[in-house]
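Teaching assistant's notes for section 4

Start the section by putting this record on the projector. Ask students to predict, before seeing the second block, whether NmrA-like domain-containing protein will look compact or extended. Collect guesses on the board.
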Amino acid sequence: MSFEKTSILFLGATGYIGGSVLARLLEHPNAETFDITIFLRDVKKAGIAESKFGLKAVVGTLAEEDKIESLAEGAHVVFSCSVNAILCGLRKRHATIGDLPILIHTSGTGVLRDTAKGMYATDTIYDDTNADQIEALPDAQLHREIDVTIVEADKQGYLKTYIVLPSTIYGRPVNPLVEAGFQKTVSIQIPALIRASIARGQSGVVGKGLAIWPSVDNEEVADLYIKLFDSVVANPDQVGHGREGYFFGESGEHTWGDISKAIGKALVELGHGKDEEPTTFTPGELVKYFGSEVNGNSLGSNSRCRGNRSRSLGWKPKKTTQDMLASVKPEVERILEALGQSQK
Ligand SMILES: NC(=O)c1ccc[n+]([C@@H]2O[C@H](COP(=O)([O-])OP(=O)(O)OC[C@H]3O[C@@H](n4cnc5c(N)ncnc54)[C@H](OP(=O)(O)O)[C@@H]3O)[C@@H](O)[C@H]2O)c1
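Reveal the predicted structure now:
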């Protein structure tokens, strides 16, 4: 009897999220049945992937759609962040091989964000089991254009799509990919607030810091991808896909003010500042530290949700908002160290 391995294409393997998911695939009980190809732009890391982890590595950038398309054509499962070429490849695969490829895409709860600018908390809470509610999101929302393209592809019937939407991810992953210098270990939002606060000498906050976001630990959100992957492979008919295939990654909520207070406290404790109390970023500071007012104000938006569909897979995140807040001081210490400013 011939035995075919599950061909998996992985984009974003060197990333903060992707590395943690890939590390889990490498230690998965069925790892021997996986034939994993990663697509990445760093030649040195491609060498590490091949020599240390036995992966196939193809070097290229996301602009090289032809390469991605042909890799996707060879994959039954894709973990992705470059959508058009992947959809083209999977469509061709379905036409020639006839199987139903699986696309696990990363979006983000940024798709839910509003324009509160830190001035209020919203009562609107999105539920990943409520497809109508998600479908009503305006097309102009962050991530939305790609999410809609993916769900449309699922409707066409040549693949099944699953979209994971992590929230504010925190914590530093620990795994062999990190030890090998292959995976990034720094998240986006909290580190950005920390770097800005260090630069201005006092913790900053957007508006009054009243708006609310969810958070999730890096290792626990990686568990969600694996729960999803295992469920889709084992019981494809029992897992929603397409418009029913959104999975929020959240395990607690914070106000942005809570994070800024934790940063202020940590900075004072570490000898970097005299006043723990955050002050409001000026419009000029939003541009200076976050690239634009829109980017900066994102850290004062609301994005409330419940991952009920995620939990229906058996995903059980244990970390809470308190764990997230406790992760702030070590993150401040690591960033100070990286900036060469540990000693004050
Ligand atoms: N971190 C969070 O809190 C969070 C929360 C929700 C959603 N998200 C979303 O999740 C996605 C991944 O986030 P992350 O935190 O894991 O980011 P990250 O650490 O920056 O990882 C991004 C990955 O994509 C690869 N990549 C980016 N541009 C590329 C290009 N032009 N060609 C080839 N590869 C490219 C990077 O490769 P290199 O290593 O070569 O740069 C890296 O592997 C993003 O879309 C982000 O918006 C993140």
